Amino acid sequence: MKMRTLLVIVCFLFVFIALSAYIGWNGYVFWNAAISPQLDAVYWVFFALIAYGYLAAMLLRRLIPYRLYAALKTIGSYGMAVLFYALLTLPAADVLVALLRWAGVERDYAIARTGWVELLVLLLILLRGSWNARSPVVRRYDIEIAKPAGTRRELRLAVASDLHLGTTVGRRHLTRLVERVEALKPDIVLLPGDVLDDSIEPFVRERMADVMRRLKAPLGVYASLGNHEYIGGHIAEYTERMREIGIEVLIDRVVRVADSFYVAGRKDASVERFAGGGRLSVDELLADADRSLPIVLLDHQPYKLGAAAESGVDLMLSGHTHRGQMAPNHWITGRLFELDWGYLRKGAMHAIVSSGFGTWGPPVRIGSRSELLDIRIAFRSETVGPAE
């Protein structure tokens, strides 16, 4: 298993270096034609920061000062978006230069004009993508569950998955979440995993708990673990810090809320890979629950929806996919998951997958939006789909 993992990493690095070399060489040719043939070192330092800043930050995290680590990671995060869309658009730019040369246009002129257009396209993508990431929408779902919930007839949930709090998503974006949740006035707040990006250090250093403690609801605030909490480690410290600010992290645990309904939180599927442990099946998790009451399940990765439905879950909430975050990645997530975003009825169960409130890697979204879910449940004798 270790040899296989090492082989995957080596192959990934080889492909990444090869693709970044292709992009870097195109940029270098443009730099010489349009800016300066004498400042090669300046270009290559600039390109290295963009292309390898994120990787360098992750590898050197324990060896360099925190502020340098945060700066490198932020630059590299935007750089990842630049490389991604450069890789998609540069082949067309290369073809255009070839056509201009064939038509008799002077080489440096063709390269310079095409290069400026390429830079403008990348800039517009970054600007729009940053706006999509930093301007979250509130997406509403109205569902009905054919179970009694004590004397309660309705329930309003605010759901935010994939905050990815760290160096690129910090206090400002977290404040946006708090303000929007406050405006919704939900009965309960649920966070289905990846509250942290990877390391817990930015969360502690930037005192994000001071902002997050403002998340309040009459019936409480509950979270589950995502793959990034396991990647970063420090699960015990994270859950304790959350508990101190009034947020209960459910790790393969079920709570009965107001004697009306259940909230269940599963360990993330990545526990087997990153923590060397296992997790309960949904059936095992709900073994002691009264399944005549409504059950809301937080399961970060939207796998095996059918198994959850067969176990009596009424509403399954997930995230993880980000809906690909940057198009056309949604074509991939759409094939990997039965439901990679939005709503699906699975038997009697309602499944909802959020594109997430934060971002992983580039703080950029194309073809997706950062979102907070406003879910309104009516407890009825018959079930129907969500309102249009």
From TrEMBL:
Gene3D superfamilies: 3.60.21.10. Signal peptide: none annotated. InterPro entries: Calcineurin-like_PHP (IPR004843), Metallo-depent_PP-like (IPR029052), Metallophosphoesterase_sf (IPR051158). Residues 155-323 form the Calcineurin-like phosphoesterase domain. It comes from the Bacteria. Keywords: Membrane, Transmembrane, Transmembrane helix. One of its GO terms (molecular function) is hydrolase activity. The keyword Transmembrane helix applies. SUPFAM superfamilies: Metallo-dependent phosphatases. This is Phosphoesterase.
